[in-house]
Design goal:
Elements (H helix, E strand, L loop, with lengths): L20 H15 L5 E5 L2 E5 L1 H7 L1 H6 L5 H4 L2 E3 L5 H13 L1 E5 L3 H11 L2 H14 L5 H10 L3 H13 L1 H4 L3 H4 L3 H8 L10 H13 L1 H4 L3 H5 L9 H10 L1 H4 L2 H20 L18 E7 L11 E4 L4 E4 L14 E5 L2 E5 L2 E6 L4 E6 L2 E5 L7 E5 L8 E5 L2 E5 L12 E5 L13 E3 L10 E5 L2 E5 L10 E6 L4 E7 L8 E5 L2 E5 L12 E5 L4 E4 L7 E2 L2 E5 L2 E5 L2 E2 L4 E6 L4 E8 L8 E7 L4 H15 L8 E5 L4
Parallel strand pairs: 1-3
Antiparallel strand pairs: 1-2, 4-33, 5-6, 5-32, 6-7, 8-9, 9-12, 10-11, 12-13, 14-15, 15-16, 16-17, 18-19, 19-20, 20-21, 22-23, 23-24, 24-25, 26-29, 27-28, 28-30, 30-31
Helix pairs in contact: 5-6, 6-7, 7-9, 8-9, 16-18
């Protein structure tokens, strides 16, 4: 019986269904592949064979789509040999083509990148490059850069170049650096993006490269040393090169270049005229990746000022939010940076008693550590003698804590030290030792390291201003008085630049802040008055950066304005920036090297960490899921 269904001309009712069979099709095909059903091609690598379906290969990989086109020999062959693959990589990528998921680890990242490049799997290639970015270190960065260049991984090559520029002092010690061609080394040394703490690193890297194959490379010494900016090196270092470095002694051209610079430096030194600059021979400082870690403090029990970071290159500030609730913002704390870690040597703090409503000054002697990556302040050790208004100086790997006063507020000349390079497992390496006492008791003094010695200047001895300069020599393990100066003060900012010690601000016995600035030459033992600053300050932070001095914070009338001193012009300038979270009080801080990917990490880390890695350099893993599944 036939039924005649009649429908209206206009369709009023319809239904569309969405099935998941398209997503499941590849999974079913993968099962068939493993069972050997309907496969029509065998891929072979390193003698191992893998059955597959041409339709799947061609639909997922442009490489296979082209290979199996009519006219190509592979189109007719049942077995196709892939000589550029190892069997493990081919198996991994073949699994990906069928199930659209791949896990890239530090063990397979390079092979996956090469294989994905051959199969024209761009997203897999990019994912492998992301893993390799996280695996870059001082020893493999040149190899990774070569790989990136060879396979046109722009982002990977960019990040490798950034790492080389940012950590040149470390990567130049690697074996891969010594194997670079002359052309590559010259290009690197001429780069305007190279970051070094001193021009000495450039000369040392040249010397290291030459000596790796002296017989064949010695003729390139003059060409390579032409990249060294000698005017930025100290007179002492240059003099030592001429007298003791055999490569320099045997090179007429190099020796003459150094002597020309030395003659100018010595001429200026003999004239004593700081208004005469090195401008005819001055060369531009290379980039620096240093950040200033700065901590202001107040005596308030409730008003706590967070530490801040200042990026000199960007002229930018950021609040350094410490994640640990145990973090303390102590008055008179001092800071040193060693191997990427900031050490905070605590000063005094006020404890508030809720029951009595009274406050008391307490000293703990606690030492904390802090890193830029973790932003976590952790207890490290404790001083033998808790103190305040002390100074801390790093001499190589050894941290010295000098003078100050204890709970009795009486000045002390005691010295404690700790080797920060020692292992710290199970408490070993965290015990502070007593060092030779200073010749004079001091608080609110100034201390700095220069040429392997510690210099202590000024301060208060409990009776009056200390007018002497003491020098500690680790070779003799003793102190000596090397200078007296009538205008020495306490609470000044102190810094070293170009072999000279600079003092800025401070206060005299009346505690009145001042505008004064001086330079002290430890070789000639001569003092030189500098132009006065624009603002009066005591307890500021003075720091060198690329041949200039910067002064931050302090108590006085600066209102947070930052000043800069240029030795070439012998003038102070007020910068347009002000200290973030400024308070009119005691400031302390230190310079610390910025991690090479610090800016990128801060921007990308929230989303990037979960996807890409679980432990940088150890178990870096990137799992990428395509939209096919």
């Amino acid at each position: 019986m036939e039924v005649d269904l009649k429908f209206p001309t206009l369709l009023k009712y319809a239904k569309t269904i969405q099935s998941d069979h398209a997503q499941n099709a590849l999974k079913t095909m993968d099962t068939m592949r493993r069972e050997g059903r309907f496969t029509d091609v065998i891929l072979e690598a390193e003698g191992q064979q893998f059955s597959a379906h041409k339709a799947v290969l061609c639909s997922c990989s442009p490489y296979f789509d082209r290979m199996f086109q009519p006219g190509f020999v592979e189109q007719e062959n049942k077995t196709v040999q892939l000589k550029d693959f190892d069997s493990t990589t081919l198996s991994t990528l073949l699994d990906f083509l069928y199930n659209s998921r791949i896990t890239i680890t530090e063990e397979n990242a390079q092979d996956i990148l090469i294989g994905a490049n051959l199969l024209l799997l761009q997203k897999v290639k990019d994912a492998a490059a992301e893993v390799l970015i996280k695996l870059i270190d001082d020893y493999n960065v040149f190899s990774i850069r070569t790989l990136a260049n060879m396979f046109v991984c722009a982002e990977l090559e960019l990040r490798a170049n950034k790492y080389i520029n940012d950590r040149f002092e470390f990567v130049s010690q690697s074996e891969d650096f010594k194997k670079l061609s002359l052309k590559d080394v010259m290009k690197l040394l001429n780069s305007q993006d190279l970051i070094v703490s001193s021009e000495e690193s450039i000369f040392t890297s040249v010397e290291r490269w030459i000596l790796h194959d002296k017989e064949n490379r010695l003729s390139s010494f003059d060409e390579l040393t032409s990249t060294v900016r000698y005017s930025l090196l100290s007179e002492q270092y240059l003099d030592n090169l001429i007298k003791n470095n055999q490569l320099v002694i045997n090179s007429k051209r190099c020796r003459q270049n150094i002597e020309d610079v030395l003659n100018v430096k010595r001429g200026l030194k003999e004239s004593g005229d700081l208004s005469v600059s090195l401008q005819p021979m001055t060369q531009q400082y290379r980039r620096s990746n240093q950040l200033l870690f700065l901590q202001g403090t107040s005596t308030s029990t409730w008003f706590k000022i967070p530490p801040v970071l200042y990026d000199f290159e960007k002229s930018a500030w950021c609040t350094f939010k410490v994640t640990d609730p145990e973090a303390k913002h102590r008055e008179d704390s001092t800071f040193v940076a060693h191997a990427g870690t900031i050490y905070c040597i605590e000063g005094q703090y006020q404890r508030y008693d809720e029951e009595s409503g009274s406050t008391s000054i307490e000293l703990s002697g606690q030492v904390y550590t802090l890193t830029l990556e973790t932003r976590k302040m952790e207890k490290h050790s404790r001083l033998g003698i808790p103190r305040k208004r002390h100074q801390s100086v790093l001499l190589g790997d050894v941290c010295y804590v000098l003078g100050g006063s204890g709970s009795s507020s009486m000045p002390t000349n005691s010295v404690e030290y700790l080797d920060l390079s020692l292992p710290v497992e199970e408490g070993v390496g965290r015990e502070w030792k007593q060092g030779p006492s200073m010749l004079t008791k001091r608080v609110s003094h100034m201390a700095v390291e220069l040429n392997g010695s510690i210099y202590i200047i000024g301060g208060w001895d409990g009776q009056g201003m200390v007018k002497t300069v003491e020098k500690f020599s680790p070779n003799t393990n003793s102190w000596e008085t090397i200078s007296e100066y009538a205008d020495i003060r306490m609470k000044s900012g102190i810094a070293v630049m170009d072999g000279k010690i600079y003092l800025v601000g401070g206060c005299v016995q009346t505690l009145e802040t001042c505008y004064k600035a001086e330079m002290f030459d430890p070789e000639s033992l001569q003092w030189k008055q500098l132009p006065e600053t624009h603002f009066a300050r005591s307890n500021p932070v003075l720091t060198p950066y690329r041949g200039k001095l910067y002064v931050f914070g302090g108590e006085g009338n600066s209102y947070g304005q930052v000043e800069c001193y240029d030795p070439a012009t012998n003038k102070w300038a007020v910068l347009s920036t002000t200290v973030k979270h400024f308070v009119n009080g005691f400031y302390s801080g230190c310079l610390i090297e910025k991690p090479w990917d610090f800016d990128v990490t801060i921007k990308d880390m929230p989303a990037f960490t979960d996807k890409v890695l679980s432990d940088v350099g150890l178990e870096a893993v990137r799992t990428w899921q395509t939209m096919w599944s």
